[in-house]
């Protein structure tokens, strides 16, 4: 299985899109609105965007997208909660189209890297109380979104053991930060471990590399995801300005001035813009998983 996945990657060559990039119904948005730059919100729901869904690490939708008919909201149970089930069922009863939910953001990771740091047995108990009942309402249930580290696989094994067969996971979310070869290998390992589930890649980027390498990674990975039938959804981690990016400015989809970078435009189905991202002057950027979107509002207040 893993060899088959890796062989497919040999057919995918880095592509620089001079004309419009291929569209994909699989693409979604991981995004927390930044109060300092509200104009950024409209970029993701522009008439030319082909994004179809989004999540914001929360159980309720972002008000910035209340009037959008383009993006379907996917609630997330970020960590331990006693209100997630009520939050989601209330939305469904109110007429919202809730087809999927996500759960437990990087539970094997610590708070300093954006992880929810929840023990597997506690997560299993929480899942059965807050997530599993949604199955009866026709909602597809996403498994815990562990890190791409070996600790992620160990945590998932412990989670499913603690579930004792009572957690009906429909799809496995994947997070990856690193080069394309590592991403393809990791996807193959996840597929081998969970062959009966489809896969969502809900965070991915090649962090802290130069612009050419970041663009090459983006193009290779998006083509790869679109070729693999069991990968049904993916969301690139870069929907923020390069000046606040903790995965390096070259991974960001917006420049420090809020203009779409080449990667940002390609992700929305457009052509290269020629806008080069830059980091904040004098700031040392350190990779910290998904902390940037969890704390985006507080970070922006410091700029």
Could you walk me through the main structural features you see in this protein, from its secondary elements to its overall organization?
- With 303 residues, this protein is an alpha/beta fold.
- The longest helix has 17 residues, at 211-227.
- It has helices at 2-9, 84-93, 120-130, 150-163, 180-193, 211-227, 262-267, 291-294, 296-300; strands at 28-30, 53-55, 72-73, 76-77, 100-105, 140-145, 171-177, 198-205, 231-234.
- The strands form 3 sheets. The chain has a 3-stranded parallel beta sheet, with no helix packed on it. A 3-stranded parallel beta sheet has the order 4-5-6, with helices on one face.
- The protein is built from 9 helices and 9 strands.
- The protein is globular.
List keywords for this structure.
single chain; 303 residues; alpha/beta; three-stranded parallel sheet
In short:
This protein is of the alpha/beta class. It is built from nine helices and nine strands. Helix 2 links the parallel strand 4 and strand 5.
Report, as a whole number of angstroms, the end-to-end distance.
47 Å
Query: Which word captures the global form?
Result: globular
- Sheet/helix structural class: alpha/beta
Number of helices: 9
Helix content: 25-40%
Largest sheet composition: 3 strands, parallel
How do the strands line up in the largest sheet?
1-2-3
Q: How many DSSP-defined strands?
A: 9
CA gyration radius, whole angstroms: 18 Å
Uncertain residue segments? 9-14, 282-303
What is the H-and-E element order?
HEEEEHEHEHEHEHEHHH
Average pLDDT score: 88
Strand content: 5-15%
């Amino acid at each position: 299985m893993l060899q088959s996945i890796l062989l497919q990657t040999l057919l995918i060559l880095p592509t620089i899109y001079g004309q419009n990039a291929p569209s994909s119904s699989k693409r979604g948005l991981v995004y927390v609105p930044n109060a300092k730059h509200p104009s950024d919100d409209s970029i993701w729901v522009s008439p030319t965007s082909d994004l179809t869904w989004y999540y914001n690490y929360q159980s309720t939708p972002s008000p910035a997208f209340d009037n959008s008919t383009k993006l379907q909201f996917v609630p997330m149970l970020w960590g331990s909660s006693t209100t997630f089930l009520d939050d989601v069922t209330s939305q469904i009863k109110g007429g919202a189209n809730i087809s999927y939910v996500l759960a437990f953001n990087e539970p094997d990771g610590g708070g300093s890297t954006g992880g929810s740091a929840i023990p597997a047995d506690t997560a299993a108990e929480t899942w059965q109380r807050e997530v599993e009942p949604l199955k009866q309402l026709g909602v597809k249930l996403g498994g815990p979104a562990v890190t791409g580290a070996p600790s992620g696989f160990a945590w998932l094994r412990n989670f499913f053991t603690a579930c004792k067969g009572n957690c009906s996971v429909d799809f496995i979310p994947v997070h990856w930060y690193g080069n394309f070869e590592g991403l393809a290998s990791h996807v193959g390992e996840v597929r081998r471990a969970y062959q009966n589930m489809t896969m969502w890649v809900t965070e991915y980027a090649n962090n802290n590399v130069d612009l050419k390498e970041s663009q090459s990674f983006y193009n290779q990975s998006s083509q790869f995801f679109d070729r693999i039938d069991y990968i049904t959804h993916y969301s690139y981690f870069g929907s923020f300005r390069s000046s606040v990016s903790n995965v390096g400015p070259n991974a960001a989809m917006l420049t420090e001035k809020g203009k779409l970078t080449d990667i940002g435009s390609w992700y929305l189905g457009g052509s290269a813009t020629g806008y080069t991202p830059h980091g904040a002057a004098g700031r040392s950027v350190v990779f910290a998983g998904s902390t940037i979107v969890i704390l985006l509002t507080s970070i922006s207040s410091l700029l």
